[in-house]
């Protein structure tokens, strides 16, 4: 068999060895780590084997492993290889990591942690925004709220507008740390909001309280703004509990 035939045979076999074809090999390896195909403490396959599994060159694999190591998912050691790190070592405030964890995020108890973080930050951010938000920022919040209101039965569109609303709210606090946190938890916030948005039959209460918050900011009413944020978070906690129950039930049905 000549080299061309061997290469053709390898290319034809590669898709069967991969669980599915993905465009981004870094995300592909990360997803396999998050799904525990490669559990914490285990060694990743050798470079050559990873090339076969993901259908890319050694250069691509090495670059991907460098990225994963920079984010705390793996650790490489000379003559030992690359080992999957414990989940406690992962940089869960990194947007890429949160996105990779997305489908498995319920297993990491991140949804509850994100809600706790929001309870700490958002009421204060809303209060600051009532005092500091520019007219443009209030207009942007109003636009996001109207998009939520007009999304109808489109949970994806509703979630996108919801994420925009909360991102603008933190930015409108004009607190640099809050702004950075908004960027850091964006992916997790999107997943958490989507989980809660699809768990309920009606989003009317959420739409109403978001509208109340926009009005509180227009009136520069700090107390009302903070109260609206607490009401939003109470709704989020209720809806998230429904979502987590549905996730657990779905997992139980699989077994």
Automatic annotation (TrEMBL):
Matches recorded under PROSITE patterns: HTH_GNTR (PS50949)
User: Taxonomically, which superkingdom?
Assistant: Bacteria
Per the record's keyword annotation, is Zinc included, yes or no? no
Q: Which UniProt keywords apply?
A: DNA-binding, Transcription, Transcription regulation
Q: What sequence ranges are listed for the domain HTH gntR-type?
A: 19-87
InterPro entries associated with the record: GntR_C, TF_FadR/GntR_C, Tscrpt_reg_HTH_GntR, WH-like_DNA-bd_sf, WH_DNA-bd_sf
- The protein, known as: FadR/GntR family transcriptional regulator
Query: What organism does this protein naturally occur in?
Result: Rhizobium mayense
């Amino acid at each position: 068999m000549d080299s061309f035939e061997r290469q053709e045979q390898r290319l034809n076999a590669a898709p069967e060895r991969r669980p599915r074809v993905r465009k981004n090999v870094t995300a592909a390896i990360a997803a396999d780590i998050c799904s525990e195909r490669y559990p914490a403490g285990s060694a990743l396959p050798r470079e050559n084997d990873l090339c076969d599994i993901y259908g890319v060159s050694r250069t691509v694999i090495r670059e991907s492993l460098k990225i994963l190591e920079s984010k705390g998912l793996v650790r490489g050691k000379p003559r030992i290889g690359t080992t999957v790190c414990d989940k406690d070592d992962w940089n869960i405030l990194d947007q890429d990591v949160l996105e990779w964890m997305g489908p498995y995020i319920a297993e990491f108890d991140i949804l509850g942690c994100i809600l706790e973080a929001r309870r700490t930050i958002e009421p204060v951010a809303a209060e600051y925004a009532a005092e500091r938000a520019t007219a443009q920022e209030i207009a942007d919040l109003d636009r996001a709220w109207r998009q939520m209101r007009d999304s109808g039965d489109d949970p994806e569109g509703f979630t996108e507008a919801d994420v925009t609303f909360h991102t603008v709210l933190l930015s409108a606090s004009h607190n640099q740390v809050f702004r950075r946190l908004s960027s850091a938890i964006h992916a997790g916030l999107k997943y958490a909001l989507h989980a809660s948005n699809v768990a309920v039959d009606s989003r009317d209460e959420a739409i109403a309280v978001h509208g109340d918050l926009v009005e509180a900011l227009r009136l520069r009413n700090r107390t009302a703004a903070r109260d609206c944020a607490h009401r939003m978070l109470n709704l989020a906690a209720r809806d998230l509990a429904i979502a987590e129950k549905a996730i657990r039930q779905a997992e139980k049905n699989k077994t």
